[in-house]
Design brief:
The chain is of the alpha+beta class. It is built from 19 helices and 23 strands.
Length: 627
């Protein structure tokens, strides 16, 4: 083969500029995936235009027609054809504008891409125009000249026969019901993201969803209930936190309200719908200590961050974002949500009325100060998680304080104290409204504590509750680098397998940090001489073997936060009061008081509930009273 043959182009390989209509169809492949993609782009344009009311009308799941009408600023007649041109936008003018995008749409591709794969019409009117003007696409994909029509201020975009000219794309559309479910989910997200805008969704001439703008707390709750369901609202904590240049607001559900799928998780960054693994994982980690395995939290969260700190120009559909300081954003989100869902019960309003506290400081990982929050009253059988600023945690006391928690199985000097206002902590007064969990009445089968509070009846799983209390105190001591230890009067000899003995030798320094001191006692035996005070009267031998098993699975000496929490959880499980142990009323009331001032006390270390509330209405229904 000679040089001329090598350099000659093969048939059809000549480089040529694509026809504009074909280029638009290629671009549409990135922007318009299905009917829901069209709705998303049109809704974003309507919101960017300052609309206060938007109507979305769908026919046949979007296969046949999509119409979005808004009352925004509108488009002048002279700019109608420019608005539907590729790369034409009013939102970006300089490279600096692209660094700090503050609008939902900005690429200038939506209308051009949509019109290239559908029969499209655009009608708009500005405030200073006497009439509206309409343009539409002809059969060749070209926009016609503007025509005067009757229309109020705002814009209406009509999209018909989606993918009529690209049959290869059309065959991938799903059934009407499936496509509309995607549209409905999208519209719900937009309704959540913009509570100030009235939005209506119509399918086949039937109104499916309609929400009014939020004007006060009552309408806010009604709108959230319509979009997320009443059970979510009944179990939601409202938070608003401001730290430096970031703000987080919204609602997080109590851990007791959880889902089998991650289908009630809505996260917005600067008002934009995003799907970000970093942020989702941050919230998941915030629930790590209180969520039962395999379950998922529910939340609606709004993160505000400087526009120049987040890159929204990552994907044509604009669902993905990239943060300049991803680790800082992750820590902020995780700590704030974790503090919100871990508030102690102490200080909560038993009347069910909302309470609010404010702070401007960044929360410490182990501190309860810093979250400005508001809780809705309890409804149904879920345990209420309303909260205010908690009372400070009481550490070890000066000498002379009576050790009242005999069931704690700890030696004198351990970091366990009666609740604040100790004189009223154990005797049950006639006024049961003084404490959130009320006062103990009886113990049932050595497993549950029965208590009466102002709302009705409380049932407490005493082992699960005590396990959480011990766990939180171990975590606090670890965070303060002061696990309180106690020498054993009689050392405990533990027989180990050869493999376990090697694990102990490798992790001996870590065991000492956890409060365990041991020495070799003989062949495949060690002698425990010092243990954490909270666990002094437990079966330390079996606990020690279980911890060796945890460390053997880890395989190295780098104790991560997750592993430490798991080890402390194992220690707490062994150190908590067991079932079938008979408690006195004083011991039961002491447990209730400690639950009220302990973080995350509504769930045990494994995410199971520690107590449930039955109010008087529910008790009346059980016995058909008043029916």
């Amino acid at each position: 083969m000679n040089d001329a043959e090598l350099n000659s182009p093969t048939p059809g390989s000549e480089i040529a500029v694509l026809p504009s209509h074909l280029a638009d169809q290629i671009a549409a492949g990135e922007v318009v995936e299905r009917p829901a993609s069209v709705v998303k782009e049109l809704l974003e344009n309507a919101l960017d235009a300052g609309a206060s009311s938007i109507s979305v009308a769908i026919e046949a799941g979007g296969h046949k027609a999509i119409q979005v009408t808004d009352d925004g600023a509108g488009i002048p007649k002279a700019q109608l054809q420019l608005a539907v041109s590729r790369h034409a936008t009013s939102k970006i003018h300089t490279p600096e504008d692209l660094v700090g995008v503050r609008t939902l749409g900005f690429r200038g591709e939506a209308l051009a891409s949509i019109s290239s794969v559908s029969r499209c019409a655009l009608t708009s009117r500005t405030a200073n125009q006497s009439a509206a003007w309409k343009i539409q696409v002809d059969g060749n994909g070209q926009w016609g000249e503007p025509e005067p029509v009757a229309h109020p201020q705002g814009t209406r975009v009509e999209v018909r026969d989606l993918f009529y000219n690209t049959p290869a794309r059309k065959k991938f559309l799903r059934q009407e019901r499936t496509e509309f479910s995607h549209i409905e989910q999208l519209v719900r997200r937009v309704m959540l993201s913009r509570p100030d805008v009235a939005i209506k969704l119509v399918h086949n001439q039937k109104t499916v969803r309609q929400v009014a703008p939020v004007t006060d707390e009552v309408s806010e709750r009604q709108r959230l209930s319509h979009l997320m369901g009443a059970p979510f609202v009944d179990n939601a904590l409202k938070l608003a936190f401001d730290a430096q240049s970031m703000q987080l607001s919204g609602w997080v559900a109590q851990p007791s309200f959880n889902r089998a799928q991650a289908d009630m998780q809505y996260l917005f960054v600067n008002g934009r719908i995003v799907r970000d693994r970093l942020l989702s994982y941050a919230v998941k980690q915030a629930y790590a200590d209180v969520m039962y395995h395999g379950r998922h939290p529910a939340y609606v969260l709004f993160l505000q961050i400087p526009a120049d700190s987040v890159d929204v120009n990552v994907h044509p559909a604009k669902y993905e974002v990239r943060f300049a300081e991803g680790r800082r954003v992750y820590d902020f989100l995780r700590r704030t949500v974790r503090d919100a869902v871990s508030k102690p019960l102490v200080g909560r309003d038993l009347s069910g009325e909302s309470n609010r506290s404010t702070s401007q400081a960044m929360p410490d990982p182990r501190s309860q100060a810093g979250v400005s929050s508001e809780a809705w009253s309890e409804q149904g059988h879920q345990a209420s998680m309303a909260f205010q600023q908690p009372a400070p945690f009481s550490g070890s006391s000066s000498s002379g304080v009576k050790e009242s928690l005999a069931y704690y199985q700890v030696a004198p000097g351990a970091d366990v104290l009666p609740a604040q206002n100790a004189p009223s902590a154990f005797a049950a007064p006639s006024d049961v409204s003084q404490n959130y969990l009320g006062y103990a009445k009886a113990q049932i089968h050595g497993v549950f504590v029965l208590s009466e509070n102002e709302q009705g009846l409380v049932l407490v799983d005493m082992h699960a509750a005590h396990e959480r209390i011990v766990y939180e105190r171990l975590k606090q001591q670890w965070a303060q680098a002061r696990l309180v230890t106690q020498p054993l009067l009689v050392p405990v000899v533990v027989r180990l397998e050869a493999s376990d003995l090697r694990v102990w030798e490798n992790f001996n320094s870590e065991f000492e940090r956890l409060g365990f001191r041991a020495e070799v006692f003989g062949p495949e035996q060690i002698k425990l001489t010092e243990v954490p005070s909270l666990l002094a009267k437990t079966d330390v031998a079996s606990l020690f073997v279980d911890m060796l098993g945890e460390l053997a699975q880890q395989g190295h000496t780098d104790l991560s936060e997750t592993l430490i929490d798991r080890l402390l959880s194992t220690m707490a499980c062994h150190g908590s009061v067991r079932a079938n142990r008979q408690l006195t009323l004083e011991e039961m009331n002491a447990l209730l008081r400690d639950m009220e001032r302990t973080e995350r006390s509504a769930q045990c270390n494994h995410g199971r509930p520690t107590w449930v509330q039955l109010n008087m209405d529910e008790l009346d229904r059980l016995f058909m009273r008043g029916q």
